[in-house]
Amino acid sequence: MKYRYCPQCGVEFIKDEQERFDNDQKNISCKKCPFVFYNNPSPAVSAIIRNNKGEVLLTKRGIEPFKGCWDLPGGFIDNGESPEEAIYRELEEELGIKKMNKIEMCDMFNVDYVNEGREDERIQVLTIVFEISIDESEISGANDDVEEYKFFNIKEFPEKIAFFEQKQFFKAYF
Ligand SMILES: [Zn+2]
Question: Is residue 117 pLDDT above 80, yes or no?
Answer without folding.
Answer: no
